[in-house]
């Protein structure tokens, strides 16, 4: 199974990706985690990323794709992978397809976790209180959701056009959402 998991901040991508990893036995790959690990390890690409982040900039798609290529070249991705929250824009989606074609590991499915924005704001406000996360205040969350809606809508259409996209209701208990995703994936990956 080679899966892209899409969803707005707070939609449950990370939680569901971890459950899918355990269920299907394929790696859960988060580009944010990969970047942080490369920075901690002090790899050459990690040092480049750190310099950009320390300067307050966004890490380039080129750096992210280099780190992603290294990860996807590892032996444990032979049976597939779950990409969590990447690609985030159309440029990344195109670049990812080029990389995956070169690695002979094209995306087979894209699952979009669909959650209403007002519910996302409430979820993230709860997370902010529970975890003390300043970036999850309602105004900040609204801005992040506006960016997500503007940049990710074309990615959703990109996978829809390729007939790889399935939208899944992301509202409900974690187990209910997980069951919807597994059902959407069908027996093909069981």
User: What do the pLDDT scores average to?
Assistant: 91
Which homologous superfamily in CATH is the superfamily?
P-loop containing nucleotide triphosphate hydrolases
Helix percentage range: 55-70%
Structural class computed from helices and strand pairing: alpha/beta
- Give the topology string: H per helix, E per strand: EHEHHHEHEHHEH
How many domains?
A: 1
* Widest beta sheet: strand line-up: 2-3-1-4-5
C-alpha termini separation: 9 Å
Radius of gyration: 16 Å
CATH topology: Rossmann fold
Largest sheet: 5 strands, parallel
What is the CATH class designation? Alpha Beta
Total strands: 5
Q: What's the CATH architecture name?
A: 3-Layer(aba) Sandwich
Number of helices: 8
Low-confidence stretches: none
Give a description of the structure.
The chain has 190 residues and is of the alpha/beta class. It contains 8 helices and 5 strands. A 5-stranded parallel beta sheet has the order 2-3-1-4-5, with helices on both faces. It is globular. Helix content is 58%, strand content 13%.
Short synopsis of the structure:
By secondary structure, the protein is of the alpha/beta class. It has helices spanning 13-24, 31-41, 44-54, 61-72, 90-102, 117-131, 138-161, 174-185, and strands at 2-7, 28-30, 81-84, 109-114, 165-169. The model has no long low-confidence stretch (mean pLDDT 91).
């Amino acid at each position: 199974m080679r899966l892209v998991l899409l969803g707005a901040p707070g939609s449950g991508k990370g939680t569901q990706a971890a459950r899918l990893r355990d269920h299907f036995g394929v790696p859960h790959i988060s580009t944010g985690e990969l970047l942080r690990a490369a920075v901690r390890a002090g790899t050459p690409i990690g040092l480049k990323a750190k310099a950009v982040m320390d300067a307050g900039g966004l890490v380039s798609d080129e750096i992210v794709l280099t780190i992603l290529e290294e990860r996807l070249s590892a032996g444990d991705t032979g049976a597939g992978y779950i990409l969590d929250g990447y690609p985030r824009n159309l440029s990344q989606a195109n670049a990812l397809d080029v990389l995956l074609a070169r690695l002979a590991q094209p995306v087979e499915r894209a699952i979009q976790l669909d959650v209403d924005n007002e519910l996302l704001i409430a979820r993230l406000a709860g997370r902010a209180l529970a975890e003390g996360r300043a970036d999850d205040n309602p105004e900040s969350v609204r801005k992040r959701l506006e960016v997500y809606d503007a940049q990710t809508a074309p990615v959703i259409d990109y996978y829809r056009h390729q007939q790889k996209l399935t939208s899944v209701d992301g509202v409900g208990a974690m187990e209910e959402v997980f069951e919807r995703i597994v059902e959407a994936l069908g027996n093909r990956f069981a």
